[in-house]
């Protein structure tokens, strides 16, 4: 029995690598991520554990509830900066709820496209619980080597990266946890792990045969770390040794003294460990949990021999620990290459076994045609061949044993009899397992009865309707029935589904009522029902006319506007009744509103205004759908323009040229509003006067008022500056052209007065 104090010390000092510290409240932490093949499906080419171009893998992530409360809103989101990486089933998934201290796992799929070259891809995993104590995502990043193939028997270096390694993993009893291949969740590096079980027994990791050179020294290096239950720094309850067999495993030699660093402990001699009293690796390795290097040098002791190497763990009946981790075993002095290496993906996909399906079991009557419903699937989608074989019942003749759906005639039987058939499918390489189907043939001592059929006898439809003819049949013997619809008379129509219970056709166009006749017959394979006749009356469908209105360009207020409507009719009608109405805008009076082309006068508006009119056309029976037209009436506002300011000398004749943007139908009024008064002579939009004598430059201001027929007016002013000396050259002269003002001689003014032009009084 172990000393009690030793057990307590061991419990306090040793902690497994996976130990977690817990947070108060709600918290989630990362445990591991695995990239798993979609084994056995077309999404995986070679099932080698490496993601290749064109493959879809499962990303299996495990998280741990690291808090003190239940988590129910845990999720993860996958992403990658590599454009060739996609996530066919989405990038986010929820995890099952987890209790404190428990793990929870979820999966998403990841697909690789792009060139099939070996390279590294980076997968980012953002995970969280929406109610965690510290909000926000946590992130784990994994790097994977893709587009590589495992090449067995090509290396003297065991990297443990291949899932199909050549090592033998064994345990002395079934209740021991065995050696396994594990992945480091922090850097996706694989290694062998032999756990420190809390059960008496041994675990062994045995190499493949190693053929030692006759001349070169035999040595190997490896990386390892260990944590075993121990008593003190020199004595352990559990531990491990390294052994070699020169005779195929019959005998084993402990080679610990050839390893540097060698064993550091002794297994407790009074315990029940199979290695008790042995020198061994025990306690914790230096720098644990970091891996540490070790070298075994066996010189030429085994030159020319084939040997086995064994890593052996012994445990007692009480407390366990993490155990022994091994990685990166490199051998020198071998003539064989027993381990796998990695190379570019060769595109050599597995050929998986296809699957046969013989179809559902059937029950039929004697003397009936029976069809077997076979099918097959191949994971790679290869074409299949079929092979049927009868395995039970009186022999029958299959129409084609290599067809997916062969037929045979059920024989006459004296009692209900079972017939069994077996189907195999083959993809040129592999043959499926057989699948069976049972056909029960029923005895009919009373003989066969003809089936009966019923249907709705009268149907009334319109032209161009899709018409469904529907029947139902019954058979006293329970036989399956077939159906046949036929048309009797003309004009012919195309029947869809004429051999089913429901047949359909499109009713022809007609100008008057038409009757079509059809018959339906049901058959049980031996006898047919009496025919049932169905009459379909096709009625002419009246078509409503279609109205149209021509668009109208923008118009000015006060202008005459004509709306132009028209109509067409599929039934050939040429006389229509037109109904117009105004639906929007200032009300106007429509003349001839019951004709195709009514008119109206555009109203006066203060701004651009829309008038909307609607037309409905009738053929005497049906009205068209309403159509609308919009008329935009533009505003023509007044804008008086008194002309440009002038500068003239004293005693000169001046003409003021007024105008307006509208241009016609206007009254013009000129008035002097400032300066020494002058006599204005008015002539429409113009006014004329002679400038007075001045001692200095003097301003005369005049106002032009423009008024339209609606009483609207607009004003503008112009200033004439009179100088007592000759103006400079640029401002001199008579500006009569292009709307410019100029002087008028006094003789002309007197002549205009004599002819009756008005001279307004001085202001």
TrEMBL record:
Record carries keyword Hydrolase: no
Protein name per the record: PKD domain containing protein
SUPFAM superfamilies from the UniProt entry: PKD domain (SSF49299)
Pfam families per the UniProt record, alphabetical: K319L-like_PKD
Signal peptide: 1-21
Organism encoding this protein: Cystobacter fuscus (strain ATCC 25194 / DSM 2262 / NBRC 100088 / M29)
A cellular component annotation (GO) from this entry: cytoplasmic vesicle
Segments forming domain PKD/Chitinase: 355-444, 450-539, 639-725
Keywords tagged on the record: Signal
Gene3D superfamilies documented for this protein: Galactose-binding domain-like, Immunoglobulins
UniProt key word Signal: yes
